[in-house]
Amino acid sequence: MVTEKIKELKATQARMAELEKSIATQLAKELIALPGKYGFSTTEEFIAALKASGGTRGPGRRKAAPAAKKAGGKRRKRAIITPEIKAQVKSLTQAGKTGAEIAKAAGISLPSVQNIKKALGLVKARK
User: Fold this and answer.
1) To 10 degrees, the CA torsion angle through 50, 51, 55, 58?
2) What is the pTM of this model?
3) Which of 16, 42, 86, 121 sits at 20 to 30 Å (Cα–Cα) from 31?
């Protein structure tokens, strides 16, 4: 019985190797045809056009910065969580305010509100 399973495994591995070879061949054909599909006569012209458009990211290249950062957008200054802010978050939570309302009132981010509520035990544990 085990030998039958081993034979089945070997046959499956052989089919998988054939499939991988078939995929590699098909991929190579599609890549070769790609420049012509977009109206370029050579691969070099196609690559040059991609680079000129900024549409490629090779190893070591970073993503372009978001528009807000490029346009001089400023990062928010990191909030210092004081005992007073914690008390304010606690009282606003008990008053039934939403996290966004609390964040706006306290001048801190929503994740900070969530972290404070978690530290104070004001959130239900996940099941």
Assistant:
1) 120
2) 0.41
3) 16
The SS3 of residue 50 is helix
List of residues 6+ apart from 109 with CB closer than 8 A: 76, 79, 103
- CA atoms of 102 and 92, how far apart (whole Å): 6
Under 8 Å between Cβ of 81 and 116: yes
Contact 54, 83 (CB under 8 A): no
Dihedral sign, Cα of residue 70, residue 76, residue 77, residue 78 = negative
- Residues 9-61: tens digit of each pLDDT: 999 999 999 999 999 999 999 988 888 888 988 888 888 888 888 755 666 55
Can you read off the two tokens belonging to residue 16?
């998988």
Is residue 113 within 8 Å of 89, Cβ to Cβ?
yes
Under a CB-based contact definition with an 8 Å cutoff, are residues 100 and 83 in contact? no
The number of residues making up the chain comes to: 127
User: Alpha-carbon distance 87 to 116, whole Å?
Assistant: 10
